[in-house]
Amino acid sequence: MTTQQIERKWWHNAVVYQIYPRSFMDANNDGIGDLKGIISKLDYLHQLGINVIWLSPVFKSPMDDNGYDISDYQDIAAEFGTLEEMDELIAAAKQRNIHIIMDLVVNHSSDEHPWFIEARKSTDNPYRDYYVWRKPLADGSAPSDFHSYFGGSGWEFDELTGEYYFHQFSKKQPDLNWENPKVQQEVHDMMNWWLDRGIGGFRMDVIDLIGKVVDQKIMANGPHLHTLLQEMNKATFGRRDVLTVGETWSVTPEIAKLYSDPARNELSMVFQFEHITITFDPVEGKWKPRPFSLVEFKNVISKWQTELSDQGWNSLFWNNHDLPRAVSKYGDPGKYRIQSAKMLATALHFLKGTPYIYQGEEIGMTNVRFESIEDYQDIESINLYHERIAAGVSHQEMMQGIYENGRDNARTPMQWNGSANGGFSQSSPWLKVNPNYGEINVELALEDKDSIFYHYQQLIALRKQREVMVYGDYQPLFEQHPQVFAYQRTLGDEQLVVICNFSGQVVELSLTDEICGLYGECLISNYRPVSELGRTLNLQPYESFVIDVSSSL
Ligand code: TEU
Ligand code: CA
User: Fold this and answer.
1) Ligand 1 lined by 206 (C-beta under 6 Å)
2) How far apart are CA 228 and CA 184, in angstroms?
3) Would you state the pLDDT for residue 5?
4) Residue 346 to residues 54, 225, 436, 452: CA-CA distances in angstroms?
């Protein structure tokens, strides 16, 4: 199936903006972002040009994991608003041609969900089998040594019935038992309920885990996973023209094709994280950051671009609500913050796939360094801090891990202007604002025609104008160069050349015959327009540009 033959989909040239509602905009000044706050900023997002909003969870929840622990899938958390306000957001977004995709968190529910409250009442309760219960081992200990991602055992003992229940995340996030057809039906009904309310699709939380076979210690990519997704597709969104994206930390290009090959009727695309995990220590994970290697990064990106070129579809992202901010992780949050943020945007948005922008990325927001662990709110960072300190890791080393890869880096309130709390709220926010809000905020970005905001706006506009950017074949260049990420995109007789300096140094680049002598219209740049490719290029720190060389082929 060549690029020419694949069936065009509206989300092939869509650009998605992710909102973390708790930190986006607080309309009623209780220090917590809300739906009314999001509605008040729709014109800003419309000006940016995005046409999809991925809304992190806004459902009823005791907020043990900031909403990724849901106690009612068909109602809105009071601190975020009401169902009426949710309908208002969907309608107001539609008026601006913006689709709202909801976060589907069904690998687990909250332990305060009525299903679990019923389930733990007795071993023969009709909801018991909605979850994963096991008897203690002979010595009373947990059924297995599974370790939760949020620290401690993945098994919690329940006094009342004398059994353990399974949880891959916090103990207030009991895993649902997807081997139970009743659970499948409940979720399908809930999804259709939201689709009938006019949403544009779903982002699916740790969807690669729902096929787990706990007794065989199989968590990701269980034997029935893809059957479950095909049944879900058939029973719910398969009949509707919506966007579905799965969060799949375990995915490989081969498996990604199973998820996203249209012929298989599963999902539109998945999030792969290989370009992220290359910066994590293979054993200790993200708490022991590994230096970023551009060559390693390029190998990963080229693999995914090439392997999914004719089958399936890629998602493209630098960061989200679980990851450190792009400019701090891959660019320079200091002297070259603006140039590097623009370079990272160009490098990502000209790749083949659907780009995702995380709130604040479009103005170059950075990571944060709070002095004390007490200033942090993220359950994962706090739990792992105490667990690793107890295991002998030094405070300095653990704080370094949190400073570089902790999730609260992404969750500090959105910086709208230089007023108190960055204009996010008139009362003190649930998580402190990054103290650099005075120099980094939306108001300043909109006033400055050369800001990162307008660079993203231009990239989004180009994706709507240039089919080669959407469907063009990807061809890597300078693959072994330690500082330059470059590639071509070709569609018929259209060709683009993308050049990005990932370093803070001036780089003299000798061009290969392949592209030497090509020239054409410079579509975007972050220093000065470049319209011809001579024998050598002197790239400024973090310089990037794209040339349409079609006329010189
Ligand atoms: O994330 C899955 C996940 O594994 C990450 O939570 C985790 O932080 C990992 O270490 C990333 O570095 C999803 C959601 O995106 C996350 O916010 C939730 O906390 C989690 O699932 C549980 O629902
Ligand atoms: Ca609020």
Assistant:
1) yes
2) 8
3) 64
4) 21, 35, 24, 11
